[in-house]
Hints:
CATH architecture: Beta Barrel
Number of strands: 16
CATH topology: Porin
Order of helices and strands: HEEEEEHHEEEEEEEEEEE
Radius of gyration: 24 Å
CATH class: Mainly Beta
Strand order of the largest sheet: 1-2-3-4-5-6-7-8-9-10-11-12-13-14-15-16
Distance between the termini: 53 Å
Helix content: under 10%
Strand content: over 45%
Structural class: mainly beta
Amino acid sequence: MKKILLGTTTLVGAALVAQAALADAPKVTVGGFSDFEAGIVSDDQDANQRNHAFRTDNEISFKVDGKSDSGLGYGAEIWLEADVDSDADESGSSDQLNQGINASKTFVYVEGTWGRFEGGANLGPDQTLKVDAASIARATGGIDGDWRLFANNTANNPYIATPDLPLNYGYSSGISNVGLGDESQENLNKITYYTPKWSGFQAGISYIPSDQERGQFMTSATRVDNTAGGTFGTNNTVAAGQADNIWVGGLNWMGQWDQIGIALAATAERGNAESALNEDLWAWQVGGKLSYMGFSIAGSFADWGDSLRLKAENANDTDFWTVGGAYEYGPYGISVTYLRSSIDQGPGIQENKLRNWTVGADYKLAPGLTPFVELSFYDMEAAGAAPDDDNEGHVFLIGTSLNF
């Protein structure tokens, strides 16, 4: 009987200890999104193509958040890809250079009154702190939305099609390969620090070893080229159009007076070219937003300069600007956004130009469920190319987004 009582007491005590431990364990939240959209496209390069297509985009997120007795916040996020095939933003010549097959984001964090540190594959402050016209866009994101996944660029001429700086645009193999951008490098492995918010100000800075950095260790004793997914090695091949020792940063200020809101931001990317034949990475963007009641306007200007271009090209006038307006009333929202960009092709050569107007509207039908429509009109002009390389057209999207 004593043995039974002792054993029972031990089990109860163990259960209480386990329960206490579980009570203090980090909280795990499961979420994600599931998007479906139908697109209709008509442009000058759509010969022998269907004029409509369906697209889905799905991810499952696991967010882990905890707090110690001393007030230290800590946790992690894992965003798993849940599509039946590769996401459009994951396309590329090598899966290791993409956004990720199994996951799009994986990072850990610690935070306190002194700020927040993040380590892993996540957006940097040049994305999280920036302000541009896409900041107020509805539907799929306006000028930073899904229109480019349906538009044609059969000659793969280089354009700036989204309001991003080079690193986030997918600018890893030189200006001739940027196409319409794939944002495949925005979640590169990095270490990031954000300051606390003070009087509306917040700053952030990230360090990234290489614009191909995926942080994968090789099991083989052979050290390999850094272009093979960012593996560590002492004999990495110097590659044209790539950068290392990259710093990205941003400064953001937000203020509110009664029903008037103002947001201002400046972001930048800086890195060393891996090849002595190329210019270093140096690009910046400034933007602002003004809101009143349900109305808002926003805009930005960005300069890529001669980032990672061949020095012999002597091309240093690559930039873009954005402007837009939006209105929100209850569950309804509508926006109009515009982007104009140009890529310098060298002295005496016409620039590659892109213009895009996008109108989007959405309706919050139920918690997390948002049907939308979006219409984009775009015009691409390729410098010194055959007339057939130019492209003008429109993309109409209709679909629904479910966030949970």
